[in-house]
User: Which sequence fits this backbone?
């Protein structure tokens, strides 16, 4: 027989050791063992084992009750200490909580933004299998209608194809037959057409109706919730008839939720087939207009390169014949579109920006943590006695650590609650700043709330762990004797942390200044064309107006304050087309601007050699072009005028012929954002492409001129909203992202400094209090107020200067990295650094100064009597 | 001084009766015999703890045996205060029960 001892339950013993209270622990387990042995000897192992476990389980309720009871008693004790401490040092606690909650609120806001940005287009069920069909290297993002159709018919690897076409500002009218009072007309900002497969490929949650069949009828219409709300109010929209642009009647078949977290933007969706009724059925199978977004859904296991190759092969012959070019297709993942640079969609994201913001969020939170850490360690001596007494009475180091950690977690949870309030207070402003529609809906996304709470607890632990270990390490004997040995040593660490806080804040300030400087530089740079006093608008793309373009222009010109009018495809700032042209066997890419002869005059461009387009020359449209200087330089042309460029890429081009003649050269101007260098560009003239109108007006009496334009507009396109922009505003708005960056970083820099100064203030007041006696003695011995002030301030100034020294190279490096994205960049110079340094130093000195002055001017008699 | 609860009374009497043998395992068996039910260690130690805090019993660690894997026994003795409490309880019980005997109830029922 094995010795009974070896068969004693090990796991049960382990369990008991952790369950039973420590004061009875060993005897209790001994008793269990003894009885087990007894049963084992008399009735065998199985019985003994059974006895052990049933008995253990039956004792369990009492054990747990005991544990909970004592835990609760301790918890109550800790809580009491924590609350007493908070109340005793009101100012310090307030500063701690304020700093932490501001830091947390920043962090939460930025994280909401970051989470939004990272989740765009990732919620579709098949998001990892959806690709956009486009030209290789992102050359041609829009496709012709035939492309999608051919792919669907010929490529078996592609499960589904969706084509999107978008137009803007459509009039949608609801006219109930029996009730004219409920008639309603709205302008739909984004009107879209798509294949019925759209709801199989993308996940747009339906509200009513069946999206699966919603777009089968050519005159069906799917509305988003908010549009349905605007049109019908509380009525059930399904089956109702709507009139679009006063022409065609549609009926509503389904309602979907408003689009969010997707780069696609539409308010109303009509079937693609319907487009045929408007632009002609044959257009739906043509290669004429390249302006559709085309998406494909691939199967679970797919090789994009293979599918893209097949698509390239499918169209190769046709496009070779059409354009005389070997066009290569590419499949671009849906999930990356939002962040892709060439994206023409409004409000597209920027991945580097997201990471910069994330870093800023973490650093702001760290600054707030440092405050807590610094104050706790600086004030350690105040709690040294408490620690000493507790240790003498028998508290273990572990329980002290738990107590201090618990306190800091309590602080961070209080701050968290405050932060939640701050977030809901500032979310609307933040949304305006970031041009997003973020919502803090804790109940809809409990996970986010949990994550934030977890982060709050983590922050508490992070901020509390060093003070906890530091405080709990005091030796009762020396502490109770009154030695204050460790306070000085941790001073180095505190200085280091303050330097860190200011390093981060100063980097943010410098970044703000540099971004502002760059924006200023870009704004003031001579762009090579005139952007002032030009009204820019889009004419409705329908036949009536197209045929009246000349008449419209003539009527506008009648007004004396209107200098000139030009039709064009676009405006300076946006390049719609890049095309390749061949000269002497060499092929080059050109940015193509399709314009009419008045463009040069309206935008104040200068023709260096040759001539402008001319209405007298019947051969000018479609066949001739103007080049810019860069293009001439690149081609190495001595006499550019008369040069024939061979046209390769006919798709979507303004040149329907293969040979294009150069008739003139235009002085270089910045037709693109200053992020890019001037590249070769070309003007062409092709009237049917020109949908935008630029009106050069006089500088004076602008409202009057605008009224005239509006009146004329109403005459020619009744019922269509008059929507205009000024070119200078549009050109400046290219730098919206940079401005947003400057503003955001600026705000966070201010908050960073604010939080850091809160900490500094509390620390300074504490240190001044500690040195009351020293200052008193100094004054008695003849120190001047100024001298003491200097002494006090120098201490802090040193740390902040150290922060500057670290911040400068870091900021210089980071800002150079950012500026490298711009072809034309401002000189960083020394000023942003100096300004940031002076700013940070003076704010910090003001913060410290109050405390220092109070300490320095105190009457030594009072301070020496102190204690 | 508060009156003893029934279980405290039973425990104190058991410890007193067991004399030098009064440690966890023995007390548990003794009590289980008296109340005719299995009295768990959990309940035992929780009650003993209450008695200790009221200073009715005293603890002294004792020896260990191989069966206990080296863990010492904890012996309990009734303290003077415990004796006093027991006396009070005894006096009250006697008043309460007086000359009543189990069969007294049977006659009453008839």
Assistant:
């Amino acid at each position: 027989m094995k010795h009974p001892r070896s068969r004693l339950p090990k796991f049960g013993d382990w369990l008991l050791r952790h369950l039973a209270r420590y004061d009875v622990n060993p005897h209790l387990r001994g008793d269990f063992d003894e009885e087990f042995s007894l049963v084992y000897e008399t009735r065998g192992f199985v019985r003994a084992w059974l006895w052990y476990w049933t008995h253990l389980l039956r004792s369990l309720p009492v054990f747990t009750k005991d544990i909970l009871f004592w835990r609760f008693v301790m918890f109550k004790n800790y809580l009491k200490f924590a609350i007493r401490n908070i109340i005793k040092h009101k100012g310090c606690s307030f500063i701690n909580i304020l700093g932490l909650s501001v830091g947390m609120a920043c962090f939460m806001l930025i994280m909401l933004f970051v989470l939004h940005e990272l989740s765009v287009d990732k919620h579709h069920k098949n998001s990892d299998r959806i690709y956009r069909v486009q030209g290789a290297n992102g050359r041609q993002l829009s496709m012709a209608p035939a492309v999608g159709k051919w792919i669907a018919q010929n490529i078996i690897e592609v499960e589904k194809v969706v084509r999107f076409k978008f137009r803007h500002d459509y009039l949608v009218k609801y006219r109930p037959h029996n009730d004219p009072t409920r008639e309603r007309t709205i302008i739909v900002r984004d009107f879209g057409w798509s294949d019925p497969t759209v709801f199989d490929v993308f996940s747009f949650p339906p509200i009513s109706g069946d999206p699966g069949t919603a777009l089968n009828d050519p005159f069906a219409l799917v509305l988003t919730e908010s549009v349905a709300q605007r049109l019908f109010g509380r009525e059930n929209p399904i089956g109702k008839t709507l009139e679009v642009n006063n022409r065609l009647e549609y009926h509503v078949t389904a309602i979907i939720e408003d689009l969010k977290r997707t780069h696609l933007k539409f308010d109303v969706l009509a079937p693609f087939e319907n487009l045929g009724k408007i632009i002609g059925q044959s257009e739906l199978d043509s290669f004429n207009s390249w302006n559709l977004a085309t998406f494909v859904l691939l199967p679970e296991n797919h090789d994009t390169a293979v599918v893209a190759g097949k698509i390239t092969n499918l169209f190769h012959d046709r496009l070779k014949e059409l354009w005389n070019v070997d066009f290569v297709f590419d499949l671009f993942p849906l999930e990356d579109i939002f962040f892709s640079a060439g994206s023409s969609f409004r409000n597209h994201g920027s991945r580097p920006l997201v990471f910069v913001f994330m870093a800023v969020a973490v650093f702001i939170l760290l600054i707030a943590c440092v405050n807590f850490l610094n104050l706790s360690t600086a004030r350690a001596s105040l709690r040294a006695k408490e620690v000493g007494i507790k240790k003498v009475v028998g508290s273990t180091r572990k329980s002290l650590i738990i107590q201090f950690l618990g306190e800091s977690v309590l602080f961070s949870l209080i701050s968290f609650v405050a932060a939640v309030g701050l977030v809901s207070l500032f979310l609307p402003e933040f949304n305006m700043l970031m041009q997003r529609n973020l919502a803090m809906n804790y109940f809809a996304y409990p996970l986010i709330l949990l994550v934030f709470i977890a982060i709050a607890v983590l922050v508490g632990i992070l901020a509390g762990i060093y003070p906890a270990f530091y405080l709990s390490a005091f030796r009762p004997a020396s502490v109770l004797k009154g030695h204050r040995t460790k306070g000085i040593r941790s001073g180095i660490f505190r200085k280091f942390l303050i330097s860190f806080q200011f390093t981060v804040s100063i980097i943010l300030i410098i970044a703000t200044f540099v971004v502002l400087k760059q924006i200023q530089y870009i704004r003031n740079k001579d762009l090579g064309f005139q952007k002032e006093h030009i009204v820019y608008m889009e004419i409705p793309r329908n036949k009536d107006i197209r045929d009246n373009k000349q008449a419209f222009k003539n009527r506008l010109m009648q007004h004396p304050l209107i200098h000139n009018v030009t039709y064009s495809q676009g405006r300076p700032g946006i390049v719609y087309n890049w095309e390749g042209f061949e000269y002497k066997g060499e092929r080059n890419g050109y940015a193509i601007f399709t314009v009419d002869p008045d463009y040069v005059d309206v935008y104040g461009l200068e023709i260096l050699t040759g001539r402008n387009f001319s209405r007298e020359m019947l051969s000018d449209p479609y066949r001739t072009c103007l080049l810019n200087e860069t293009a001439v330089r690149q081609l190495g042309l001595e006499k550019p005028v008369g040069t024939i460029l061979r046209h390769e890429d006919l798709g979507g081009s303004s040149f329907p012929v293969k040979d294009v003649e150069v008739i003139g050269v235009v002085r270089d101007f910045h037709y693109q954002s200053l992020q890019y260098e001037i590249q070769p560009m070309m003007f062409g003239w092709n009237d049917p492409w020109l949908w935008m109108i630029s009106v050069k007006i006089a500088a004076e009496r602008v409202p009057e001129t605008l009224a005239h334009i509006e009146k004329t507009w109403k005459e020619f396109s009744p019922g269509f909203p008059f929507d205009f922009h000024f070119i200078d505003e549009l050109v400046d708005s290219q730098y919206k992202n940079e401005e947003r960056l400057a503003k955001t970083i600026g705000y966070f820099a201010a908050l960073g400094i604010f939080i850091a100064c809160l900490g500094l203030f509390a620390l300074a007041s504490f240190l001044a209090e500690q040195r009351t006696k020293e200052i008193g003695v100094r004054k008695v011995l003849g120190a001047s107020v100024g001298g003491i002030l200097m002494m006090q301030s120098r201490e802090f100034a040193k740390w902040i200067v150290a922060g500057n020294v670290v911040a400068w190279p870091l900021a210089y490096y980071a800002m150079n990295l950012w500026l490298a994205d711009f072809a034309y960049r401002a000189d960083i110079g020394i000023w942003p650094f100096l300004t940031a340094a002076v700013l940070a130093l003076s704010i910090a000195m003001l913060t410290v100064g109050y405390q220092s002055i109070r300490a320095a001017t105190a009457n030594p008699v009072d301070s020496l009597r102190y204690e | 001084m508060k009156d003893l609860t029934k279980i405290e009374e039973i425990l104190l009497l058991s410890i007193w009766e067991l004399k030098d043998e009064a440690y966890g395992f023995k007390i548990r068996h003794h009590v289980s015999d008296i109340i005719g039910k299995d009295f768990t260690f959990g309940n035992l130690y929780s009650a003993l703890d209450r008695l200790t805090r009221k200073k009715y019993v005293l603890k002294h660690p004792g020896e260990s045996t191989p069966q206990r894997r080296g863990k010492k026994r904890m012996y309990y003795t009734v303290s003077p205060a415990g004796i006093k409490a027991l006396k009070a309880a005894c006096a009250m019980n006697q008043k309460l029960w007086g000359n009543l005997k189990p069969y007294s109830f049977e006659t009453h029922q008839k």
